[in-house]
Fold each of these.
Amino acid sequence: SLEDDLVIRRQPEIYLRVYGAVLLNAQGQRIGALAVLNDITRLRKLERARTDFVANVSHELKTPITTIKGFIETLLTGALEEKENARRFLEIMAQESERLNSIIDDLLSLSGIEQDSKGFQIMLEEVELRDVLQNTFQVCQSGAKGKNITIQIECDINLKAKVNAPLLGQALVNLVQNAVEYSVKDSRVLISAVQENGQLIISVHDWGSGIARDHLPRLFERFYRVDKARSRELGGTGLGLAIVKHIVQAHGGTVSVDSELQKGSVFKI
Ligand code: ADP
């Protein structure tokens, strides 16, 4: 008997695991062969996604660690005596440690949601949506004030839905914080919730920088960023939208984005 993997090279590629065995009759004579083919394409894709993820995480963690290590060496080889430089280096090190912390917090939060949502175990409770939106507003307001951005809420006072309020709140905070970060000063962000054809639709609308069309399909992937340097500068981890997607999926919903460069974006749950 034999066992092997086959790749059918066409678009998209198909991976097959083949088991083959000779068939014998009662007298031990060969009367044929049996081949069983299992389609393992999905499994292969998951394996690849996992290795890519590990490589991405390592890379994301390595960048701040390299910076911190570099400055420690500089301090140890003399810069410690130059008071002003030493202070500046320590400030950068503090910033980079904060980045490491945010990445790890976001990763833990992602894996937590994944664990909880296996078999749809998240707790759903009927709540008034306005309260969830109001909490989001409170969390994001101080960041928005700094840029003089007004956060508006549009939601019927009677609108109720079965959700996991802390998780949904986290998803909305991620969306609204992005909306604020990628908006110019003195603009506004609108959070609205409506019920349409038995579906609850929550959207976060901004009139900020917008996102070019070719980035949209990959936007919800872990660590995907349109402008890496800008995201870093703003303290982003590239995991915010992946967290949103996981939370929404755990609720059995979907998330989408409409965006136009220089006009703004709408994220819809
Ligand atoms: P980050 O931590 O970088 O904000 P996210 O996963 O939250 O990571 O977002 C991924 C990328 O999507 C961001 O780096 C940014 O380029 C883009 N993005 C997200 N939200 C918006 C928005 N409202 N307007 C413009 N770009 C956005």
Amino acid sequence: MSLRTTHSVDVGHVEDVSPGSGALPPRAWYASSDADSLSLNGSWRFRLSATADAEDESFAAEGFDSGGWPEVRVPGHWVLQGDGDFGAPIYTNHRYPFPVDPPRVPTQNPTGDHLRTFDLPDGWPAGGGAVLRFDGVESCARVWLNGTDIGEFKGSRLAHEFAVGHLLKESGNVLAVRVHQWSAGSYLEDQDQWWLPGIFRDVTLLHRPAGSALDFFVHASYDHLEGTGTLRVDSDVDGRVSVPELDIDVATGESVTVPVRPWTAETPRLYDGTLVTEGERVPLRIGFRTVVLADGLIKVNGTAVLFKGVNRHEWHPETGRALDPETMREDVLLMKRHNINAVRTSHYPPHPAFLDLCDEYGLWVIDECDLETHGFTEQGWRDNPVDDDRWTPALLDRASRMVERDKNHPSIVVWSLGNEAGTGRGLTAMAEWIRGRDRSRLIHYEGDWNCRDTDMYSRMYADHAEVERIGRGLDGGPLKRRQLPFIQCEYGHAMGNGPGGLADYQRIFEAHDRIQGGFIWEWIDHGVKDERFGFAYGGDFGEELHDGNFVCDGLLFPDRRPSPGLVEYKKVIEPVRIEGGDASGTVRVTNAYDFADLSHLEFEFSYQVDGFPTGAHWLTVPSLGPGESAEVKLPATAPDGQGEEVQWTVRALLAEDTPWAGRGHEVAWAQQTVTPRGPLPAATGTRPAADSDRITLGPASFDARTGVLRTIGTTDVTGLRLDVWRATTDNDDGASWQDDVRNGVEWRKLGLHRMQHRLDAVELTDDALTVRTRVAPAARDVGLRTVYRWTSDGTRLRLTVSVTPEGDWTVPLPRLGIRLGLPASFEENVTWFGSGGEAYPDTGAAAKTLQWHTSVEDLQTPYVRPQENGARADVRWAEVGYLRIEGDPEFWFTARQWTTEQLDAARHLTDLTPGDTVWVNLDHGQQGIGSQSCGPGVLPQYRLRVRPAEFSFVFSTVDD
Ligand code: GAL
């Protein structure tokens, strides 16, 4: 089975299913207080070969001259460096980008030789040993120090350590690492992400003083009935454990119970301690908490938790999976600021520093093993490594490397065996090993719906109806599963515009105890920064097989700007519910935290008239405990709107600075209309006048032959007509494997992107201009009879559009409204009263309705693959440049510097350039968004059914 070579290059390990040789047993990852360490990150000499055996191993010998080699940055992926000279990234979702013939890999196996010399720093102690630690190398490495081969390993996102004390010199040490992109390990690492070879996490030399701590296990449980914590630190090397704040000073292995404050994701109380062995002091950050499966529920400290989570891949648009500490912190801060309380480390253990941050800031963590064999689904899971005993040592190696490295993090409450690896004996072996080693956490794995090895029933992308059935316990399944809690380890596929339907899921999650929440797929778009495209996705590097922009499906854009999806999620999962109370002027406040009371919040109250704030008051809300509610009296009486709409807004704000956001940060909010706006002016009474080529009506002029609007006041208007098309979103298009109707596909089949407008009549009467049309696609008998009725009172122009469907429409419409072109100079000035951010029928939870002002450019949402975006919902009125538009009823408002057709054709944002027209859509209806790019489509209540409709706009000119 192993690779044969004609010369003496040892590459047999590359295709060997074993995890490797030479490394030390896995152990806890920690930073010593006093033992020396030397970071070997930085610039390394680098040589790229096309095959594993192209070059012999002489580069590893002392004295080798690498002067002519270029350099790479470590940590880093070579394919993201070298300006294209070092190959390119490949993106596939689940298909292996090489023939499936385990454990064989292609002859063409990009191989990077990395070289670095180093001196020991002054003062590096003479005695003791030393360990060389690699925190992450993709996918297989062999290591030499000073010419000696010290071992080889696989398991890309796991730490590997080697004892090197006996090889070190004071100066001129030569560290050589040969990294192969493909190896037997690649079969276990088929996660949906870019294939990115390289030494992408830290390389560190650790001094190991005599008597240093080797491995240790902090057991810190919490008894919620007694309010006490029990601490015991098991250590390979005996020592003492002290926690001054708790007056703890005990020997390792000894238990001590004292009153403590527990650790939870909401109240992440950590106690600083120290483990002192003869040769070393190790700082401990201890969080007391107990995780159990009780009453069929996941309970922490006696309370069932509701995960409001995200799936996080490690990603940076320039450095790939090589993340700097600031980026990790930014992720945690962004999560906390968006009410997220849980993270699944999909689909591999993250850099350990990320877990430190989860402990510190408070996030529940599902730590997932570096294991996915999804590509075997292409062959009905035949030869799946997780069901083949030859691979079991590699699987156990991965499980133990995860657990041993990460076991001292209080934030980790669940171990996950991996992702999408089918089912098999290897997974059972992993679960058994984990249970034997750590009984203090639960086990997750989604792939086995019978829950043979797991402590919870987990699914991905189950639709609302199924989740509801599961919540009610009507989903059947084996007895074991029926007794387990349920989580959606992935849902709400955040690809492009969306996901839709989150609020509907949340309602179901909260209605049933058995459902303990979910994790949005996923945290961040994996777009690669690229001069050609802004951000590149699959196919942009000429890959033979790829899955396009399926790699851009996050709540954050690649540069970590929050997408509307994240803002929506924040609102949907807000930990305080504020609802309009009774008519006498109250508001109902409910604490939706699992552990915290509301004393950390203050509540701001204000009225708005026509969307404009009128001054703020404080609302006095009692410090409710979890699950409690109160009716609170409004602090002021509503102003007289004099015909304008009057609403109130309540905002729950942080009352004090926290480590993750400052005082005043908004946690939750609600709005309610108290007095609706008055009716729109009828705008009638003026008689239309016609000459040979022009009709005038009040401030407007029309083409006499076609009845098409030309001007309003001094503003030129182009192309005003009915519009039903939108540049399909990833969720409209749906994934190819979806077996239900994919609207985006049906719409195009039907021809909704090329509707023809037939003119039937232009009629002038005493008080109106009426234009009768039929709007329909070629080759089909369906159509929309569309009547535009124009009236005016002399200064204002009113349009009423009536739409009557004809024929048998079997799909909803993308949108229904009018579009019109305005002068490009109007770009800079847009004001409206409606939702502030992007909103569609099923993504509008976070639509805060106020008066807003911005430019057309800033109304765009920069989805990496351009698509319909940027609609503002519930718009009462909008002003674009000099044109004011009022709607009856409220409308969806969109404006762009390009047409929908241009947006539809674009593959990257760089394909879009502003033209000489601002295109405005005023929509009476929009189809919902759903989540069909990898999940359920649009729920029935958010579909834009084809039926008769009538809607009006009143146009006028804004004064200078
Ligand atoms: C899941 C998988 C994820 C990702 C997602 C779609 O099946 O676990 O890794 O591929 O679908 O984006």
